[in-house]
Write a structure and sequence with these properties.
The complex is a heterodimer of chains A (about 350) and B (about 270).
Chain A: H1 7-47, H2 55-62, H3 70-102, H4 115-129, H5 135-156, H6 163-187, H7 193-200, H8 209-227, H9 230-236, H10 240-245, H11 250-272, H12 278-290, H13 297-317, H14 325-347
Helix pairs in contact in A: 1-3, 1-13, 2-3, 3-8, 3-11, 3-12, 3-13, 4-5, 4-6, 4-11, 5-6, 5-11, 8-11, 12-13, 13-14
Chain B: E1 7-16, E2 19-29, E3 34-38, H1 45-52, E4 60-65, E5 68-69, H2 75-79, E6 82-85, H3 97-102, H4 117-129, H5 145-158, E7 163-167, H6 175-192, E8 195-199, H7 203-209, E9 212-217, E10 220-225, H8 227-230, H9 233-240, E11 244-248, E12 255-259
Parallel strand pairs in B: 3-8, 3-9, 6-7, 7-8
Antiparallel strand pairs in B: 1-2, 1-4, 4-5, 9-10, 11-12
Helix pairs in contact in B: 4-5, 5-6
Classes of the chains: A mainly alpha (about 350), B alpha/beta (about 270).
Chain lengths: ~350, ~270
Amino acid sequence: MTALATPQEQSTLELVRSGRARRASRRRLVLVILVALIVAVFAVSLMVGQTFYTPAQVLGVIFGQDVPGATFTVGRLRLPRAILAVIAGLSFGLAGVTFQTMLRNPLASPDIIGISAGASAAASFAIVTLSLSGAAVSIFAIVAGLGVALLVYGLSYKGGAAGTRLILVGIGIAAMLDSLTNYVLSRAGQWDLQEALRWLTGSLNGTTWPQVLTALIALVIFAPLLLSRSGQLGAMQLGDDTAGALGVRVERTRLIVIISAVGLIAFATAAAGPIAFVAFLSGPIAARIVGPNGSVLLPASLVGALLVLVADFTGQYAFGTRFPVGVVTGVLGAPYLIYLIIRTNRAGGSL
Amino acid sequence: MTESHELVAKKLTLGYGDRTVIDGLDLRLPPGQITAIVGPNACGKSTLLRSMSRLLAPKGGQVLLDGKSVHRMPAKELARTLGLLPQSPIAPEGITVTDLVGRGRQPHQGLFSRWSRADDVAVADALDATQTAALADRSVDELSGGQRQRVWIAMALAQQTDLLLLDEPTTFLDVSHQIEVLDLLTDLNRTRGTTIVMVLHDLNLAARYSDHLIAIADGTVHAEGDPSAVLTEDIVRTVFGIDSRVIPDPITGKPLMLPIGRHHVIAEA
């Protein structure tokens, strides 16, 4: 760099700087709006239900006062449910967008390529057949999730580039695992439909505090680990060689990222089931809202939380019957999946 | 100006699986100069470039940057001295020019990649050097092949390395864009002293734009040195297996190779 910048160099620097400032403020605005919406829907889902509680009553419960009626309804039913909705949404959104970014394909989200299905099959097997609970279930889910990730990667690996093959193999494995979940549930007669639906499409019904806590611990561990890799992931989008030349240890980063993302998926699934399509939808929605203004990881995570909160609230109160959250997100996700597949066909294979 | 760094390969053996591509190759890349590497298809040129930038671990021998093995250096530290532009990097859908160029700053950033003034300066500088500032807010998808290649070079420049390796930077470009890219690389070499190493297919452009020409055949260096000493009829025959006539290029005075095929040859006078 020369000591004296020419007017042209000055103006380019100004251009770069103002462009960056503009993109950063746009991004901040989007993040603030998303957080505000999450807080708003969270608050509403604590207050509204069969009985309405005022904000003062809800706050009273949160701060440990004994409010007649509200202490049970809000403290034991609504609060853990809403918190798990946020945690599961954050986890699914973040893990989904990580896979989509890393594999450069919006179809490569963990709920399409079988990772959620694996975690769900293992969790339902552990709970229904082995009568396990708590951390043991999460361990089953994470081991199965990692196993499926490795299996899909291994089966589709052929001299590197996996792409479309990985997605097709993943879809096949997911179908097998779903049938396994069905089998496990069909063998356990005493389970009611609500509980079965948790493992088929995901549900927040009957959320308990221990479930919330395990999912929260996983989020606190894995989310920062993933977010700290966003620069490396950005470089890996340019291809493995380009990323390597930019000083990214591609294999090590991939390993950390896969383990963290699978960890998030597995713990969230063990608590709430494989909430359909949240991992798949959050990234593309976030990418459209944020635009080319920086990493999409954090926005996608927030979109995931908002999706689950809104879908759960809608599922509970918008219809005559109470639908589990996964039914609502499934209805949203399926058309988008079809749209993506049609677009892929038109574009000739690459997404 | 930039410091001069010396990149050396010693008894380097490279391959994939059981297949050996480069066998016991010795090479020194002269600092501050433009080196072009030529050779027949699948002779290991790209493999050599990948290994020199630590993307491929050697089966034997080593690559030394200023006497230190590149495969033992911390990845980020190496990436601040040596950059590589692969043959076909991927531009994510919808990425803007500034964003893509900014990703070249990766080795200079820490965790959670906070953006500094130095990063802005480096990006602006790279845009100016490649004359892509006017494209800054455009999406890379919309650019022409020549513009796109200049943007990728800008990304490599934002990395601010003293050594820049390029794998076939002119492939898929028409003749005017080929010259544009090679002129740009020459400018960088002359004004900043950046050491440039490029794999090229076109022997005449390689001879024209390099200070040092390396011909690779059968996994090893067949000839190297001044282009006029390397681009000869004998060497073209042994390396590429084709007869040719080499005449002085009337434009540059460098050697100009005219291949002799089975057809369209005027009877010798």
